């Protein structure tokens, strides 16, 4: 067994941005979720919150180390802020601010990483009402973009046509939703930083691709349960536009420009088909796709979530040792 697993030490990395509504549930759940570990610590990377997020962490979790970034640098930059402070041998648990964990969930995730073939362990995720989320996904391809554009959520019933995997069908996948994931130190040391230029969305898809390309597996641990509030990307037009455009960027980087062009067209068609359902959201996505086409198909992000402005700090490293 690796030293990191024998030691049972975990760094909990939480990225916040105006998260005061969600934090009490998360922070309150951590002690019981860590029960059984030899040691753990919490680092909160705050991306320039304008509410009482930082003060709330200080009151509810005075043991936490809080790092305040000067602006909203994006989710990946927040994760990297925490990774830069990780100690040798620590596993890293990345958590969204809008999740809360069940007792002893984290030791179960860590135990899964005792298998040297596992490069990332993820929990079973439920909505607050108990409904299980479909968090496991297949690798993005242009064909799957077309399948989902034309067929919607049912496309995943045919593996070649959709990324979404029916909950309970498998416990290993090409990538998993980034709301909660645990990476053993051996993986963090080899794979390195998250891609900050993606700002928000698809950063976990990119990281999972690098993990699986290095020969590791991504495994879900059904006994580790996390509840996820979520939902912002489906209601905020600018966030949905960021999610959609980053899908094109991901295809360009990993499958080539030809695949990116086909994926871009699929997303345009999908947005047009869905305009009557949610006009503001899909109109924003469609506009971002049309305006950003030349950049997106070359693997260069646009930033609809920030009004077109790139994050203040962009660090892109596909590999490299952690500081």
From TrEMBL:
Transmembrane domains' residue ranges: none
EC number: 2.4.1.289
Keyword check for Zinc-finger: no
Domain of life: Bacteria
Pathway: Cell wall biogenesis; cell wall polysaccharide biosynthesis
Residue runs in coiled coils: none
InterPro entries: Glyco_trans_2-like, Nucleotide-diphossugar_trans
Record bears the keyword Coiled coil: no
Keywords in alphabetical order: Glycosyltransferase, Transferase
Glycosyltransferase 2-like domain segment(s): 12-137
GO molecular function, one term: decaprenyl-N-acetyl-alpha-D-glucosaminyl-pyrophosphate:dTDP-alpha-L-rhamnose rhamnosyltransferase activity
Signal peptide: none
Family label: Belongs to the glycosyltransferase 2 family.
Protein name: N-acetylglucosaminyl-diphospho-decaprenol L-rhamnosyltransferase
Annotated organism of origin: Actinoalloteichus hoggarensis
Organism classification: Bacteria, Bacillati, Actinomycetota, Actinomycetes, Pseudonocardiales
Gene (UniProt): wbbL4
């Amino acid at each position: 067994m690796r030293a990191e697993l024998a030691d049972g030490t975990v760094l909990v990395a939480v990225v916040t941005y105006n998260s005061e509504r969600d934090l009490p549930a998360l922070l309150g759940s951590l002690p019981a979720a860590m029960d059984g570990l030899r040691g753990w610590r919490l680092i909160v990377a705050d991306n320039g919150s304008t509410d009482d997020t930082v003060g709330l962490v200080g009151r509810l979790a005075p043991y936490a180390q809080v790092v305040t970034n000067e602006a909203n640098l994006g989710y990946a930059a927040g994760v990297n802020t925490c990774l830069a402070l990780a100690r040798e041998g620590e596993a890293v648990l990345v958590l969204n601010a809008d999740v809360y964990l069940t007792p002893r969930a984290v030791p179960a995730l860590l135990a899964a990483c005792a298998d040297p073939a596992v490069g990332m362990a993820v929990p079973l995720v439920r909505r607050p009402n108990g409904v299980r989320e479909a968090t496991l996904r297949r690798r993005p391809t242009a064909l799957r973009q077309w399948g989902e554009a034309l067929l919607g959520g049912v496309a995943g019933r045919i593996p070649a046509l959709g990324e979404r995997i029916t909950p309970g069908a498998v416990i290993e996948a090409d990538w998993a939703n980034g709301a909660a994931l645990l990476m053993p130190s051996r993986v963090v040391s080899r794979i390195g930083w998250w891609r900050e230029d993606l700002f928000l969305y698809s950063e976990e898809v990119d990281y999972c691709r690098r993990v699986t390309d290095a020969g590791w597996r991504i495994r879900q641990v059904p006994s580790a349960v996390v509840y996820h509030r979520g939902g912002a990307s489906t209601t905020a037009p600018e966030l949905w536009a960021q999610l959609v455009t980053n899908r094109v960027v991901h295809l360009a980087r990993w499958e080539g420009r030809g695949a990116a062009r086909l994926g871009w067209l699929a997303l345009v068609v999908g947005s047009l088909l869905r305009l009557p359902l949610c006009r503001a959201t899909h109109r924003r996505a469609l506009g971002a796709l049309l305006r950003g086409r030349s950049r997106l198909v070359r693997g260069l992000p646009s930033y609809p979530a920030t009004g077109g402005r790139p994050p203040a700090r962009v660090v892109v490293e596909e590999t490299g040792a952690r500081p």
